[in-house]
Write a structure and sequence with these properties.
Strand content: under 5%
Length: 330
């Protein structure tokens, strides 16, 4: 649930990021086209990316059983930043030097990393990881609404409006609206939906402020995660104290989600975008809630009523419609 928006390609200009596309701002640097490989290596890497992000919600659930949400999020950010900074050092790339870029990345770090990561961590203290993963899938729906208001080049079509309505019908189905939302912690669900909304807001912000920046996505993301770590470290003492113990399973989840989901996964996704194109790479978004649900049920023994998978499918169908483009005539 922590990918980068990647290069400002035609597809990226109309598609809001998923959690798999939210660690890095949009840059103007075109992707370096890798030579087409004759092997099936990219499907394996695509599947690995889906698994890492799909298991993110399980990692959060287990991690917050041993650490407070703020402690867990701070550890996650620090691990992710460290991984990308090491990669930059190996590549001998420099961080941006422009005060303007650092200023915008400071805002982006809060909107795209600190706030949504913390909200998801708090949400999963009261809701199942399966529900959090499904709420995360609403990001394209929020993005469609906001892009119509904030981005003049995005015009609503009947298909996209229908997708929006269908998506939010799916949300109501997941929550069991006909039962008066009984059995659902509304505060936790609201935080998970709010985290998804943050991704859409952050996407709009970086599109408006950082498009065309001539720095590699790894450098921009590394800087953003470094700033996010510093931001949360400053305010963390107001909400929590230092951990008094370090239980092994939650600690491993911090490292796994930080190093893999917030660090290596971004590099993996960027290579996939360069190799197979953004449209195919972004299909990972639709596998995340499926994997999150399967992991929560199989490994955490979370209960699953009929309306949860049905509502999730409706949400994904609506999200797909909001990202579809009308066919060209002639």
């Amino acid at each position: 649930m922590s990918t980068a928006t990647g290069p400002d390609t035609a597809a990226a200009r109309t598609t809001p990021p998923s959690p798999a596309t939210t660690d890095a701002p949009v840059t103007g640097k075109a992707p370096v086209r890798l030579a087409r490989r004759r092997t099936l290596g990219w499907p394996v890497r695509f599947a690995l990316l889906c698994l890492v992000w799909g298991f993110s919600f399980l990692f959060i659930k287990v991690g917050t059983q041993g650490f407070t949400p703020v402690q867990f999020t701070l550890g996650r950010l620090a691990c992710g930043a460290l991984v990308l900074l090491v990669i930059l050092a190996i590549r001998r790339e420099r961080l941006p030097r422009s005060p303007r870029i650092w200023g915008h990345l400071t805002v982006a770090a809060f909107i795209l990393n600190v706030l949504p990561f913390t909200l998801f961590a708090y949400a999963e203290t009261t809701i199942p990881s399966t529900l959090a993963g499904i709420c995360n899938a609403t990001s394209p729906l929020w993005g469609m609404v906001l892009s119509v208001v904030a981005l003049s080049e995005d015009r609503p079509t009947r298909r996209r409006v229908a997708g929006l309505g269908l998506g939010f019908l799916g949300v109501l189905t997941v929550l069991g609206a006909w039962q008066g939302f009984s059995g659902t912690d509304m505060a936790g669900t609201a935080m998970a939906l709010g985290a998804s909304l943050c991704y859409a807001i952050g996407w709009i912000y970086v599109r408006r402020t950082l498009a065309g920046v001539d720095h590699s996505p790894v450098a921009m993301t590394g800087t953003q995660l470094l700033l996010a770590t510093l931001e949360l470290a400053v305010v963390a003492p107001l909400f929590t104290s230092l951990p008094t113990s370090f239980p092994i399973a939650p600690l491993l989840c911090v490292f796994a989600l930080g190093a893999l989901g917030t660090g290596f996964a971004f590099v993996l996704q960027y290579r996939l975008v360069a190799e197979i194109g953004p449209t195919t790479a972004q299909m990972c978004t639709y596998f995340i809630p499926v994997i999150a649900t399967a992991a929560g049920v199989a490994l955490l023994d979370e209960q699953l009523s009929w309306n949860t998978p049905v509502g999730a499918l409706i949400i994904l169908a609506g999200a797909a419609l909001t990202q579809s483009k009308p066919r060209r005539k002639g």
